Amino acid sequence: MDYETIQVEQRGAVTLITLDRPKALNALNAQVLTDLLAALAALDADHSQGCAVLTGSDKAFAAGADIKEMSGMDFAAMYGSDHFSGYDRLVQTRKPVIAAVAGYALGGGCELAMMCDFILAADTAKFGQPEIKLAVSPGMGGSQRLTRAVGKAKAMEMCLTGRMMDAGEAERAGLVSRVIPAAELIDEAVKTAAVIAGMAPIAVKANKEMVNAAFETGLTAGVQFERRLFHGLFGTADQKEGMAAFVEKRPGNWTGK
Ligand code: CAA
Fold it and tell me: By Cβ atoms counted within 10 A, which residue in 46, 94, 147, 254 is the most buried?
C-alpha cells in the first residue's frame, strides 16, 4: 500500500514505520493520522508481523501537530470535529508499537511517542510540550501521559515553561526505556521489536493489555485483571508448547493459538 506521509517497510516480522514529512520536521497533519491508522490496522491484520517500530528522521521524530494546519481553526471547528480524537484509535492497536525517537519529539510528537508502548531514545532525542508558547496546551494526551510517565513536578514544569528534556533526563525520569547511540537506534529498535515478534502472539497481546491497564485501573482491579488474563493464557496451545519447550530445553514453536 502507498502512503503519502509515511514509509512502511517489513523487516522480517517487524513493521518499520517512518514518518516522512522532512520539510515540516514530520509535523503531524490529518494525512499523517490517516496513514498511521491504515499502517497500524495493516499490522494488526497481518499474521506475519508481530511488532512495529515507529520512527522519524535524525533531526525530528516529529516537531508537533502541524501548526500551519491548525492556525486558522476556531473553537467550533476544533470542538465540532473533536480534533485529534482519531489518535484514540491509534492506541487501540493490539500489537506492540515501539517509538524510536531521534531529535525533536515536541508537542504532538512527544504525545505520539508516548502513545506507543515504550520509547527507545537516541542520545540526540529531545522531548517537550512547548504548546504553551503558542498560547495553547497539549491536545493529544500529553498532559496526562507525561504526568503519568515522569510525575507531576517535571510534567508541570515542561508544560508551563515549554522546556525540553534531553535523552538522559528522559531516561532518568522514566519517560524512555533506554538511550541508544543515534547511529544504532533503528537497528536496536528493530532488534528489540524482533524479540517481541518472536514471542507467542496471544501472550504478547495479553502482556500489552495488562501493562496498559495499570494506567486505567486501581491496584486491586488491575491485579485482578492481570490474574484473569494470566488464567486465560492457560487456554492457549502456545502455553502448553512454551512450558513443554522449557522442560525439553528447546525453543518454543508458536502457533498463535
Ligand atoms: N508544524 C508545522 N510546521 C512545522 C512544525 C510544526 N509543528 N515544526 C516545524 N515546522 C516547519 C517549520 O515551519 C519550517 O518550515 P519552513 O521551512 O516552511 O519555514 C520547517 O519545519 C523547519 O523548521 P525550523 O526552520 O523551525 O527548524 P529549526 O531547526 O530552526 O527549529 C524546532 C526546529 C525547534 C523543532 C522548531 O521547528 C519548532 O519550534 N517547531 C515547533 C514546535 C512546536 O511548537 N510544537 C508543538 C506544536 S502544537 C501541538 O503539537 C499541539 C498538540 O498538542 C497536539
Answer: 254
Whether pLDDT at 1 is above 90? no
Per-domain residue ranges of the chain: 6-197, 200-248
Q: What percent of the chain has pLDDT over 90?
A: 99
ipTM tops 0.95? yes
For domain 200-248, is the CATH number 1.10.12.10? yes
Q: C-alpha distances in angstroms, 201 versus 33, 42, 44, 52? A: 26, 16, 11, 13
Class level of CATH domain 6-197: alpha beta
Give the catalytic positions in this structure: 65, 108, 111, 131
What spacing in Å lies between the alpha carbon of 85 and ligand 1's midpoint?
22
Tell me the per-residue pLDDT of 88-118, one tens digit each, with 9 for 90 and over.
999 999 999 999 999 999 999 999 999 999 9
Q: How far away, in angstroms, is 64 Cα from ligand 1 center?
A: 7
| Best residue among 29, 66, 67, 134 to mutate for probing ligand 1, ranked by most atoms within 8 Å of CB | 67
Residue range 221-235, pLDDT digits in tens:
999 999 999 999 999
Is it true that 6-197 and 200-248 share their CATH fold? no
Residue 118 φ/ψ, nearest 5 degrees:
-155, 165
